[in-house]
Structures are given as C-alpha cells and as structure tokens.
C-alpha cells in the first residue's frame, strides 16, 4: 500500500478486502488461495511487533490515513489553489470540522468527509501537534494497545527469521496441535506424534513430551542455564550481564521451538523422529553461525569466545 496511487485515490472497500485477502493468504499458504481458518486473526497480524503483531500494514487504515492528508490540507493550507477551490465549491462559509456533504456530492468527496470525521478527534485534540503525517495518522487509527513483554524475545536480532515467526505463533499457542484440530472438527488420532503416550496439546508437545524434555535439557546443558516452569516467563525475568548473550539464548530457544515443531510434522508425514542430540546440535550450529556472521559490534567477539568455550554437547 506504500505506492503513489494509494495517496491519490480513496480505494473502494471491495478492492481493499481483495488486497487484504491476497496478503493474508500468502502469509499462511504462500499462495493467493487459502481455504482454512488462519491460526492468528488478521487484526492481530497488523499490529506493530512490540504490540504482539507482525507489523503488516492494515490496508483499510493505511488508505484512510493517506486520504486524511487531504483533510489536513483543507484545514491548514488555505493558500493552496486546490484548497481554495474546495472551500469555494463545497465548504463555502462552513466550519470544516462541522461541515457535512450533501447527498448529491460525489462519492469521493463524501468519503473524504467521512475520513475527516473519523480523524476529527485527533485533529481537534492535538494528536499531531498541528503537523499531520501519514504514519502518525495511521498509528492513531490503530488505537491504543498494550505492549507485549514477550516481543523482545520473539523479534530479537540474533534469531533466524523463520524461527522468529514460529516463536511468534508459539507464544500465542496457535500451532495446529491435535487438540486444536479436534476442536475444529478435524478427526485425528489425538495422541502426540513424538511419544504416542498423551493427547497432543501445546503444553504437552513443548513442555511435557519426553522428546521435547530431552531437547530442553540438552539445550540448557549447552548454554549453562536452567529455567523453572514456563521458559517464556523465565526469559522475560532473566537478567544477564550481556544483552547479546541474552539474545543468543533467546535465539537458541526460538530455534529449538522451530525444530520441535518441524520434528513433529516430519514424524506425522514420514514416521521418522530425529535424535534429540541431533536437533540441539543443529540449533547450536545455526546460532553460532548467526553470531559469527552478524554485525553485533564489539560484543560479538566476547560472545563468540563464550560460544566456543561451551561448544560441546554430550
């Protein structure tokens, strides 16, 4: 939506819905068609990352914020020839913020006035200090949301991008485990694919399954850390002398989450289960490579020395 024509035209709802549908389907399926219920609501996906979303632009609100620029021009740029024409033809002597278009006005003009009314509280309450920008208008339209304390863990810079995404789904417990599939009316065996002993739930798969527990223990032994209970809550509270070291630990946990889900799916399709030590060694290799090749300043050398020191997994 960051294109020139979107700054000029107010797009019909049908067009915006179609653009949004293509974006949503591509996110979850990699194609323009996706017939299943998305794991996470699109409204959540469009939230900023620090507020629990993916930072994807909400087409409807972005277009409204773009057209909101016209409302600001009409209010503040009285020297503009176009604004003078608008006042002469439409507004005349009325107060712009109290003005209502007639029913025989053009569709475009009526929609601009609707967006004016939508943004009116922000303009009158000084939300933009008299200097409106599209980004500020869009942020205001998103509304107030509380920041998520797990966001720094999910989006830390050491993580492999696909691990970021899987961890984002993980913290919201939206992986399509068998208990959720049963709720959606999809008939499944129900038992955990990795151990075959209990119902496959989010908690069982990542925290109680013997396979996952062994992976977690190996990861803790490698990184020389130990958490009790919920590892996400532990990471949020954990204080470390080095921010980069904490990010490395976060990246390792994110990598393990990704690989546990990958092992589960491989077992479901191919009836093959990797050894926990192989899984953790793969995570170790990926994280070490990311630190070695990344631009992390002076702290990278110390972090690499630490990783080399603990580079043995028994």
Describe the structure.
This protein is mainly alpha-helical and 314 residues long. It folds into two domains: 4-142, no CATH class; 151-309, no CATH class. 60% of the residues lie in helices and 0% in strands. It is built from 16 helices and no strands. Helix 4 (59-76) crosses helix 6 (107-124) and helix 9 (161-171) packs across helix 14. The longest helix is centred in the last third of the chain and has 28 residues, at 243-270. It is elongated, with a radius of gyration of 26 Å. The model has no long low-confidence stretch (mean pLDDT 88).
Keyword list:
314 residues; mainly alpha; 2 domains
Shape: elongated
Q: In total, how many beta strands?
A: 0
Helix content estimate: 55-70%
Largest sheet: none
């Amino acid at each position: 939506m960051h294109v020139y024509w979107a700054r000029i035209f107010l797009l019909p709802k049908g067009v915006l819905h179609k653009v949004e549908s293509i974006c949503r389907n591509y996110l979850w399926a990699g194609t323009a068609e996706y017939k299943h219920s998305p794991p996470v609501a699109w409204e959540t996906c469009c939230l900023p990352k620090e507020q629990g979303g993916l930072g994807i632009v909400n087409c409807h609100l972005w277009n409204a914020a773009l057209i909101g620029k016209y409302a600001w021009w009409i209010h503040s740029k009285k020297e503009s020839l176009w604004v003078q024409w608008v006042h002469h033809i439409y507004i005349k002597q009325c107060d712009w913020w109290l003005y209502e278009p007639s029913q025989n006005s053009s569709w475009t003009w009526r929609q601009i006035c609707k967006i004016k009314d939508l943004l009116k509280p922000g303009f009158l309450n000084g939300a933009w200090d008299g200097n409106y920008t599209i980004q500020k208008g869009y942020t205001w339209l998103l509304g107030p949301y509380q920041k998520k304390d797990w966001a720094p863990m999910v989006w830390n810079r050491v993580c492999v991008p696909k691990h970021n995404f899987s961890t984002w789904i993980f913290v919201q417990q939206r992986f399509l485990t068998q208990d959720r599939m049963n709720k959606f009316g999809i008939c499944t065996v129900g038992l955990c694919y990795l151990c075959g002993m209990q119902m496959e739930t989010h908690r069982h798969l990542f925290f109680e399954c013997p396979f996952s527990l062994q992976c977690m223990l190996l990861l803790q032994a490698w990184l020389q850390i130990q958490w009790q209970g919920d590892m996400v809550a532990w990471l949020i509270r954990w204080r470390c002398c080095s921010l980069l070291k904490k990010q490395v630990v976060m990246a390792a946990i994110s990598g393990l989450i990704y690989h546990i889900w990958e092992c589960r799916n491989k077992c479901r399709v191919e009836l093959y289960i990797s050894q926990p030590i192989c899984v953790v060694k793969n995570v170790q290799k990926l994280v070490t490579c990311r630190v070695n090749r990344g631009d992390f300043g002076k702290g990278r050398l110390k972090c690499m020395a630490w990783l080399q020191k603990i580079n043995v997994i028994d």
